[in-house]
Amino acid sequence: MTSAAGPRPDDGGARTAPARRPGGRSALVRARVLDAVRAQLLEHGYDELTVDAVAARAGVHRTTVYRRWRDVGGLLADVLDAAGGDDWRPRDTGSLEGDLTALNREVHQALTERPSITAALIAASFRSAEAAEALRRFWDDRYARCEAVVDRAVRRGEIPAATDARRLLVAATAPLYHHLVLLRTPPDPGLPGHAARAAALAASAGAFAEP
Amino acid sequence: MTSAAGPRPDDGGARTAPARRPGGRSALVRARVLDAVRAQLLEHGYDELTVDAVAARAGVHRTTVYRRWRDVGGLLADVLDAAGGDDWRPRDTGSLEGDLTALNREVHQALTERPSITAALIAASFRSAEAAEALRRFWDDRYARCEAVVDRAVRRGEIPAATDARRLLVAATAPLYHHLVLLRTPPDPGLPGHAARAAALAASAGAFAEP
DNA sequence: TCCTTAAAGCGACATCAGTTGCGTTAAGAT
DNA sequence: ATCTTAACGCAACTGATGTCGCTTTAAGGA
Questions:
Q1: Within a 13 Å sphere around the CA of B96, how many CA atoms are in the beta-carbon half?
Q2: pLDDT attached to residue B161
Q3: A201 touching B, CB under 8 A?
Q4: Which residue numbers in chain B have pLDDT < 50?
Q5: Domains observed in chain B
Q6: Which residues does the annotated region (Disordered) include (chains A, B) (predicted)?
């Protein structure tokens, strides 16, 4: 799947090509709407991110947005998918703890900056199945890329070869999400480092080794 | 603060007692409404938990609910506060990893049962400041009680005496919330044990020791 | 250039969350 | 027993969200 541009009424079979038109007005409208979503989010935050506001800002009719994106969650999902195809890679600092700390600092930044698109998407994921799916895809992609961090640590001999990369990565990052998203404790600049160090220690002790 | 029964228009000074009436009809209405919230949540889940449905079910007028609880978040906050004064204590299994595993199993249960009041409250906390506050209070209380687990482990000599209890407890439980609430991965019965073991290992390696 | 039709525009409508003003009931004090 | 007034009942209203049927525009193929 590439860029999700809204509901796609399935061709049904292999007849004559059903003539999609993703190149002209549709694409222009989509670009204007997604730009409006980003701008509205940056200027007024998630609370004022309504379909009406986005449509007005994009100079597009309300029903157009409702038909193509269904709701705010659908809009955010499309924004996220559009931004997901970037070339992000985890930093290489030379040590597992360093890599995890750098990663955690990025997560910390993404969750505490105001306004935070990530935080908005998390909030939206509790109201919209589309947003929830997009977020799941996004995180799945990010964690997959982060497995490189674990591979490097294994190659350096820091941790066992049979280490479960996902479990290690979740152990390192989960405390950040827990504090900043769920517990809503005031941001602690030491948190990224602490969580990274704890996960790295557990990993080198074989806590994430497969049976 | 005891049981929050709605807005309390501050006496302002020490005049004659302003004559609250928390013992009669008010209390009856509150009990009926909170019962209705629990019943509605159990039968139809969070999505159908509206102020109107609760009011109808409680045999009370809509405006009464709006005035006393403001919104669904306020209702859930009151339910949680009412249920927060229980006598819950973490189990004592004889080892840190055992205690954390038992704890994690309870968290896992609370988050995966359908319907889950905890999950409903988390969802509500993104829409209602009152629900967010109630949830914060609830978790703060629970984590405070769980510090007993860490104290016991210190006394047994499993972990350093200077261990930061909160950080250890968050490290143990956060992966559960991350998987079940945010990542929405399918429930893994091994997860409570895995996360507990990793946190216990990190703790014994001194990962949560104070400087 | 012309034709077909997907997608956008438009306004009317439906629904629901939440508010307001006012009358009614009954808790608790005298 | 009587009085005061907090809390509840009631209905009408506002505003935002989301839908529907129809018309208009223009993309892309002939």
A1: 27
A2: 96
A3: yes
A4: 1-19, 21, 23
A5: 25-70 (1.10.10.60), 96-118+129-204 (1.10.357.10)
A6: 1-24
